[in-house]
Amino acid sequence: MLNQTESNNNITYENLKKEMNLSNFPDYMLHLIENNGFDLITIIDLYGRMEYISKSVERILGYGKEQLTGKYAWRYILPEDQDYLKNYFNLEQRNAQKYYLHIRNQIGKYIIFETVLFTVEWPDGKKRILAIARDISDKKQAEEMLIRSEKMSIAGQLAAGIAHEIRNPLTSLKGFVQLLQAGISSKEEYYKIMIDEIEKINTMTSELLFISKPMTDEKKEENVQEMLNDVITLLKTQANLYNIDLNFQMDDNTEVYCDKSQVKQVFINLIKNAIEEMSDGGEIIIKLERNHSWCIVSIIDQGPGIPKHVIHKLKEPFFTTKKNGTGLGLMISNQIIENHHGHLNIQSEEGEGSTFSIYLPIHSS
Known about the structure:
There is one protein chain. The protein is an alpha+beta fold. It has 2 domains: 13-135, PAS domain (Beta-Lactamase, 2-Layer Sandwich); 140-361, 2-Layer Sandwich (Heat Shock Protein 90), CATH 3.30.565.10. The chain has helices at 13-19, 27-36, 57-60, 65-68, 79-88, 137-181, 187-212, 224-241, 260-277, 308-311, 329-339; strands at residues 40-44, 50-53, 97-104, 110-121, 127-135, 219-223, 244-250, 255-259, 282-290, 294-300, 343-349, 353-361. Strand 9 and strand 10 (294-300) form a beta hairpin. It is elongated. 25% of the residues are buried.
């Protein structure tokens, strides 16, 4: 992994051209790329020190090239993103590694960049890191608006079922209060039952309020079992309306580095989709597993299945197989999973049901 000790080699523009074997590439083309590119291109040594940075940094972040050349990249990256890179970046991997990093501009504001990192071996035998970063602030704002819209839509759809479910404990509470007013004995036993009923109401309303909250981007280690238990509690009322049992199976509990609100949104979207596909009732299995590098959450339904020729379209915006669907839920879920460096696997057989498996990376310390 990258260390933060000193290094003395600087890469100039001419020196870079030579090292990258671009001597025969027309100068004016290199200058066009250097002066007009939309991407921020940086070459970093193994200590985290920026040896080269493209001129586009002046337009994108407001710094002059000379202000950053020779400085440590860590100084400009959000601390939480630094921790993630230190845990997950693999210096030995030859393929591109993609990350979403918050980088500080000249006025102190953090801007989100889609960043691709490559380990490059220089002709001098030394390894360096080539970073290509693109400002995706506008894209993220659009995504957040879509997610917010979908969250509110789901909250509205679930509210009716939850209101119905809350009536039962309220009826019990009313009955116990009337008994207490009448001077019934065994008060302590009744108090315990009343507190349990109040807790049921509190849990359901808390989860409903949770999914209605604005989008966040606060990643930390989160317990996956606890998140799934919360989501199952929230969706159990809707499952009951469809005569569906939610069966939670756990091979191994684990924690993942994630934004809790976003990942719970994915679980809600996928389990809710499964419920709505099973009009004849049945069972949905929510399975939590892990292997050496992945936490795997599978939602296995007994619905009608999905034709093979449309499976690849499910993650596209506005594509839906539902009569009243928006076609945004699965697209949003897939985007959230990819933003967490995971992936969504879909398997389905017509007449046999579907399995949606969420893969989220685990850091083995």
